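Can anyone check this?
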Amino acid sequence: MLLARQLGDLPGLRLLSRERFIERGAPGLAALQRPLDPQDEDALRTRLFPESALPLVPVARRRFRRDNLASLGGLFLDPQQEWASKLDLELPQEQAQAASDLHVRLVNGVAGSGKTLIALSRALLLAEMRPHERILVLIHNTPIVADVRERLHRSRGGLPANLEIATYSAWVHRQWRRLYRAPLQMPGDPQHLPGLVRSLRVRWPELKLSEAQLIEEFDFLNELLVASEAEYMDTSRAGRGFSLRAKERAEVWQLFAAVTGALRADGLRMWSAVATEVCRAGSHAALERYAHILVDEAQFFAPSWFHTVKLALAPGGRLFLCADPNQGFMKSRLSWRNAGLDVSGRTKKLLRSYRTTQAILHTAGTLLARAVQADPEHYLEPDFTDMEEGAAPILLRVDSPQDAVDRAVNEIVSLAQTHGLPLSAFLVIYGGDTPKHLLYKRLCRALGVERIWWLNKDKKQPPGGYGPDYLRLANLETATGLEGGAVFLLGMESLLAGGGESESDARKLYMAMTRASHRLVVLSTEELPLESRALFRVGD
């Protein structure tokens, strides 16, 4: 009776005496139980475990139940995702290992499997559990950082004081300035470095590589922290796309040294050299230190990047990685071991996509599988069990890039008006051949300048601040991690025309296609190979 008075009249709460329970047994307990509907389950989990709910853009999320109603609310981690997000959350003394162990955990997942959600959920949980420890989340590209901050602003009003979310670029630039106490400058003109290479290479007339290939090789040398010509001779170049004989390697190294020296004489450096110089600093005492560092989109991180991250871990600090090897087009053929990370026995695989449909994932995966080897470190086979079948991606043939812009804008306006879709349900991704300024102006004219968030223009937050509904526009190279209910792809002809022959192109195309949850529309000025065209529903 005392307990009943303390609890009061709480709706849905029933008290059962021990005697009555023993008398009636299990049938009595079963009579008092009923399954929770999805809304009640979500409300209960939000109240008891607030870190498991994050606001997302309105794309469809699936629990792999055929009767599950569509909801635009927060996505909850399923048991597999929640288990991964809480790995290594025990007390520090229960995990004490050698400093070289680094307590690494890796979550490998297909597109849409919830990797970013896992990283953010774990970071928020750590921030709340350990308010006196610094926690850092590093993400590869600027647009997804801005997108994540906007979502967290809506849900929480900001970040915990001990949690930082940043792009790797912004973070490593700050660390360089702390170490060297000097301004960090890159060439302002994108043609400066190619021009410098062109002028210096005349000393090695037999070197036949293009300027672009040479700069790519210089980045490779920086990213692998190659310190000498002798070390370069012994370095594996598997997956580089072109071979080099010993004599060519020697000449490339000499040109690399000449270019690096010329840049430094002008107070400049290559972007890829920033992480290298952080690693090679005489002292790392000025580096900021973190108890926990979480890396999202880790497949895009170079070995030198990981080395800087490890340097920033406090003693006993822990590193947590989320990656999709199917998207690893930037650092192709590099393994975790190449990056100095031993994740054997510490990897969790997420093979189910909670974002996209079976039809979209099948098309994207088929195009990708034609170009990649069945190496589990570089390719994950999705699990299609109980996935919603969905509609096949739509292919629209247009005459010119300008026609692609007009058709895409007209289709988006029609969908928004006739179906009442919020603008935040749309994501437009454009490739290099798209007239991007024309695309932006046409969208602004049709929908309003304050309703278009060009993530490559307004890099830190939406043009009208947090709150309003925006259509998002992004360049292909910076679209990783973004998502939309209806995704339009423009300027993908070079990726589609090869039929998946280029591995890097196939990975880019896979990434772009799997941003879509419900509808994917691809506009092309060129005919696709027959075997690729068969994967799409061809529109008028």
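Reply from J.R.: I decoded it. Confidence is low (pLDDT under 50) at residues 51-104.
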